[in-house]
Description:
Layout: E1 2-6, E2 13-14, E3 20-21, E4 29-39, H1 42-71, E5 75-79, E6 83-88, H2 91-106, E7 112-122, H3 131-136, H4 140-146
Parallel strand pairs: 1-7
Antiparallel strand pairs: 2-3, 4-6, 4-7, 5-6
Helix pairs in contact: 1-2
Amino acid sequence: MLLAIDGVSAGPLASPSGMTHDANAPAGRLHQTLLITDIVRSTEHLARLGDTRWRELLERHDEIVYEAVEDTGGRVLTDRGDGFLMAFDNRGSAIVCAEELCVATAGLGVELRAGIHAGECELLGTAWPGWPSMSRRGSASARMAARC
């Protein structure tokens, strides 16, 4: 199990929208804890399992993610196929979710990589800037884990 924690945030205030705002944060920015996951060596798993069995594994993976995120009070922001971007109002919930996901997906025969960033985030409308470009540069969770 890989778990990287990058940065910290203190003193957030929960808002009715479920986002966490800091009274001192500039407009359009908020304190959140982001959890980014991906399945390690997913291309190798696809080649080994074939399309049908891989799709079944991904469907079960997705069910596990949505259930764990709901149970820990988070929100799924983006589904990237073999990984997710999720947001939490506090670090503890994100860590618990990451641990649950890593254990549960191991039961599927795959390793899940999880990276966590806690701090001030920019929100533009409903989009999280940087996420699409991060996915084009490779696994964000792998880069975060490599920093530790």
